[in-house]
Amino acid sequence: MLAPSTIQLLRFHFSFFLLPVYLFALSQVPAINTTHAVLIFFILHILVYPSSNGYNSYMDRDETPIGGVKAPLQPTRQLFYTSVVMDVLAIALSFFISYWFTFCIVAYIAASRAYSYRGIRLKKYPVAGYLTVIIFQGAVTFFMVYHGSSIDKTLAVPAAGMLAASLLIGGFYPLTQVYQHEADKKDGVVTISALLGYKGTFIFTAIIYTLAMSILAWWFFTNGEQKKFMVIATMMLPILVYFFKWSGLVWKDVRTANFRYTMRMNLLASICTNLAFLTLLIWRGF
Question: Among residues 179, 252, 166, which one has the least CA distance to residue 208?
C-alpha cells in the first residue's frame, strides 16, 4: 500500500497543467497512430510527470505550499522507490513507441533528476533551472508526442511548434515560483522569479507569452490557418484578463503574489490552453 504522503506528493493532478503541450503537439500530427498516442499519454502523464514531482518533493522536503498542494506531507523512502519504479516502467513502455522516443524519455528523466538532485541541483541556478524546465517540458515533449504519435514516426517535427511549446511553458513557469521566494531562499535556491523580483516576474511573463503567441500567429498564418489561430487567441483571452488583474494587485501589494492567486492562475491557464488545443485536435479530426 502506498502511504498517503506518497500519493499526495506524486501530484497526479499536476499533470493537468502540463497537458496543453501534449494536446498541442497531437493536434498538429498529420496522421495519428491512436494506440501510440494513448500510450504516450500514459507514459508522460501517469508515469513520468508524477515521478518527477515525487522525486522533487523527496529532495526538497517542502514544509510550505508547493504546486497544487497547500499543505505537503513529509516524504518517506517509499516515495523515492516509487518514483524509480515509475521511471523504469516508463522507459520500458517507451520501447513500444520508438528508439528516438525512448532516448527522449531517458533524457527527460535524467534532466528532471539533475534539476532536483542535491548533488547537482540545477533548480538552484535561475537561468540553468529555467532553461531545463522549458526545454524539456516544452520543446522535447512536443517532439516526443509529435514523433511518437505519428504513423510514420517522422523526425521532421516542426521547429515552430517546439519553440512555441517552450515559450508557452516559459511564459507561465516563473509565475508558479512567485510565491516561493522566501522558502526557496532558505533552501539555497534562486529561481528565475526570485532573480527577477515580483514585478519583474510579471513583466518577463508578459514578454515571453507575447513571443509565444507571435510564433503561433506566424506559424498558423503561414500555413493559411488564420481561423485556428483566432480560436486559440480567443480561448486564451481569459488568461490575459486574469493576468493583468493580478498584476495590478501585485503592483499595489506584493503580498498578493501568493499561493492562492498562483493556483488560480495555473488552473485558469491550464483550462483555457487545454480547451484551445483540444478544439484544434477535434477540428482536424482525431
Answer: 166
Question: Is 67 in a helix, a strand, or coil?
Answer: coil
Residue 32 pairs in a beta bridge with 150
Q: How far is CA 179 from the centre of its chain?
A: 18
Residue whose grid cell is 514578454:
207
What would you measure as the largest C-alpha separation in the chain, in angstroms? Answer: 54
Q: What is the DSSP letter of 48?
A: I
- Residues 161-202: tens digit of each pLDDT: 999 999 999 998 999 899 888 888 888 889 999 999 999 999
Crossing angle of helices 99-116 and 77-94, in 10° steps, is: 160
> Which 3 state secondary structure label does DSSP give 53?
helix
Please give the grid coordinates belonging to residue 240: 490575459
Which string of DSSP letters, residue by residue, matches 214-260? HHHHHHHHHTT-HHHHHHHHHHTHHHHHHHHHHHHHHHH-GGGSSHH
**For 32, phi and psi rounded to 5 degrees?**
-95, 135
- On average, the pLDDT of the chain sits at 93
